[in-house]
Amino acid sequence: MRYPFIILVLLSISLNLSAGKYVVTWMDTLDNSGDDDAYAIAVDPDGYLYVTGMSYINSNYWALTLKYSPSGSIVWADTFVCGAFDGFMGITVDESEFIYTTGSAYIGTDIDCITVKYDSTGTIIWVDTLDLGGDEYGYGIATDKTGDVYVTGYTFDGSNYDCFTVRYDSDGNTVWVDTIDNGRDDTSHDIVTDGLGHVYITGSLSTGSNIYFYTVKYDTSGELLWSDSPTSAGQGVAYGIAIDVNGNVYVTGYLYRSGESDYLTIKYSPDGNILHVDTLDNASTEEAKGIFIDMQGNIYLTGRTYIQNWDYLTVKYDTMWNIVWMDTIDMGSDDEAEGVVVDLLGNVFVTGRSYIGSNKDYLTVKYSKFVDAGIISITSPDTGYTDSSYTPTILVKNNSYEDTLNIDIACYVDSAGIHVYTDLKSVFSLTPGDSTGIVFDPWNTPSQPNDYTLRFSLLTTDMDPENDTLSKPLYVREATGIFYNDSNFKLHPPSLCRPGSVITYYINKKAPYTLLIIGVDGRLIKRIKGNGKGSHRLILPELPTGIYFIKLLQAGNSMDARFILVKQ
């Protein structure tokens, strides 16, 4: 059923550039005037996002599913009701972009598990209810490569909770159902499949006064292959499960200890051997709810942390379990994240709920990798000389988190708002964190002194426009130095130079040459070797104030000139 929503809000977030690695590119809250709780999230290969949960509408809870475009616009929203207290807790999308949700509804005299299949337009394809004789709560849902659907959750018979898992074919027909009863309370909260058709579920197992993570592996026919409840890891409840490209399984949730809780994540081999145990203590109380593994093996966790109130807490680990990024979101009151996914471009999406005003609202956030190139400095001098050439130079840097960039940069010399010089240069494959100098074509300065503005602009779109432009005054002054000119060379050093000043020289013959800078005491300061006919430029290095000599040598010919260098 489609329902006219009261409030749909898309917030454009000013980028928090201090995050360094990821920035929030959009954030959306949904408020239907009552409580709205998002519990699960999925993303398709095209970057469309799906969020599901429940919404209090017309004095009843309805299951509510949203589809977002990659830019954060809502494509469609569907409310589903087949009884009372309907709500979805799990969502997934297959390679054909069919969407599957699972949850529960009060039907007749008890609660049943509800599973729904949608097409990409939000049209319902089939609905199934599962009633095992007690109250059934659907929590996790997954698909395999054949299009079959797997749902897990728990059933309550009036005395104990037991895990259940059901397999459907793509048309919604039940293939098999399995329940697990270890004698006390057993719950299952999430499910995943591997490329071989194996099924993994995770949740909790109670041994009386204690409760522990509980993870199970099934084969394709529903036969239990192994189960594990690692009591040595401590008491806790698992809520999320994921699998990497090598078939290793990761479960996450929270660990109880000393009156608080911490994120607890366990990595298993496909055979059920524990490969790694990780806890995250943010100096407060933390509860992990969702997990995602990307194609590179990076691990993403989300949940909540208590810092004066509950806040979203999302963490990224590399394959060696180093934390490479962490972010919290605080909308002012309690904010509790439930699920996390990553699209093929590396964008991270988190959903859950936020207490805004007097009610809870859906809160969905998109993070994108920080992409930025910036101009660090203008390295060419601020003074040029008449009837000579001036070469603009700058230093640019790739400030991005992971992206290698191609950068286009424009250079302008302006006189009273009119461009008297323009040039465009490109930098290719500049890796993150690296910088490079850029030399533009020389500008032939006018014959009369004047004041100009030298300006540079990056033409490549990025996330921080504040460092994309840089300018400074450029003064063209009368050339008062001596011209040195013969049939072999032309040399024109200004009479007064500074470190960074440019001395232009011209070689008439195409042959190897040498340029020497010599101190007044005869000491060799710098030697430059070149080859070629044409105009060349020398940028003076940092030198003490004093008199210096230039000597040009080529094929037995030479020219000498002198200049005075001052610091100010």
Sum up the structure in keywords.
Immunoglobulin-like, mainly beta, single chain, disordered N terminus, Neuraminidase, five-stranded antiparallel beta sheet, five-stranded mixed beta sheet
Assigned CATH superfamily of the largest domain: TolB, C-terminal domain
CATH class of the largest domain: Mainly Beta
CATH architecture term of the largest domain = 6 Propeller
Helix content: under 10%
Mean pLDDT: 90
Could you tell me the number of beta strands? 48
Give a short account of the largest sheet. 5 strands, antiparallel
* Quaternary organisation: single chain
Can you tell me about this structure?
The chain is mainly beta and 568 residues long. The protein has no helices and 48 strands. The chain has three domains: 7-369, TolB, C-terminal domain (Neuraminidase, 6 Propeller), CATH 2.120.10; 373-477, Immunoglobulin-like; 484-565, Macroglobulin (MG2) domain (Immunoglobulin-like), CATH 2.60.40. The strands form twelve sheets. It has a five-stranded antiparallel beta sheet, with no helix packed on it. The radius of gyration is 34 Å and the shape is elongated.
